[in-house]
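Exam revision sheet. Question 4 asks you to relate a sequence to its structure. Input first:
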Amino acid sequence: MKLSDFDYELPEELIAQYPAPERDESKLIVMNRKHDEIRETHFGNFPRYLRDGDLLVLNETKVLPARLYARRSTGGRVEIFLTKRLEEGEWLAMLRPARRLVTGEKLMVEPGAQEVEVIGRALEDEWRVRLPDGADEDEFLDEHGHIPLPPYIKRGDEPEDRERYQTIFARHSGSVAAPTAGLHFTEEVLRKIKNHGVTVLPLTLHVGAGTFRPLKKEIVEENDISAEYVRIRKEFVDEILGARDQGRRVIAVGTTTTRALESIASGSLVSSGEGSDPNELAGWTDLFIHPGYRFEVVDAILTNMHLPRSSLLVLVSAFAGRERILRTYRWAVKRRYRFYSYGDVMFLQ
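Answer key, structure tokens:
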């Protein structure tokens, strides 16, 4: 299958630059795969499409204020985008512009001229950096970091983004991008869902910088994606894996949750050796879901609309069919839906 098969035209003005005034005011497309039909409503009505006994699984990851702005000794500005924690005080980072940067260089983070040291190049587009000696990581990032809005949001982060680019159930810090399907939930919506007889279960998948990277190889199946960290309580795993035998649907909130669940069900989660909680299953997944993949546990997906040629668009196409997804996207464009992270949402069932 060719990557060009996952392309579509989107007017730039339909890329949402700000969230809806209220989280649950986003438009919702409900897609019925069996009957090949769609209907439109708003997210506040999402609980109506759930059934007594359903399992709704959501991602509790929390977005780090992972973008730092610094100056070189020459006065030039450098953006430091922390992408992965390696050990205490040491991170992988994207540095822009990276031209002429050298190992050992000290970058002065604003405000306060805090030194971040460039340790050396790690990957093609990433460097190893060291945060200021003796600094508490959480405090340093909270004071100096900015919310890493995706590149298609053509503005700097604003105070509101600290709350709105975070789900209301975010608990565990570690992501550099939001699990955006979860951004639509409010406490009231969750209350209605639980009152509807739905069991809500959490897991954590820390979203990495790979979510911003386009697929590069024209043959879809030849691509791979960066590994991301997953953790979930073992009692929840047992309940999820036994759901189908009990006639219960497993509904994934987002593509991140989908990948985590399918990695667990398929046994492709690679143990990290991290942590000591015997009640948790933890590890890394690089599972790339593309058409031809057979879903083992996920029965429905709540998801935002995704970029052309992206691994996320490929994933939802594997679940609902490429032609059906692209036809629905074209329909959404005509009806002026809002796309991507701060945009509207779909329920694929």
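Marking note for examiners. Helices lie at 137-144, 161-164, 187-195, 234-241, 255-266, 311-320, 322-334.
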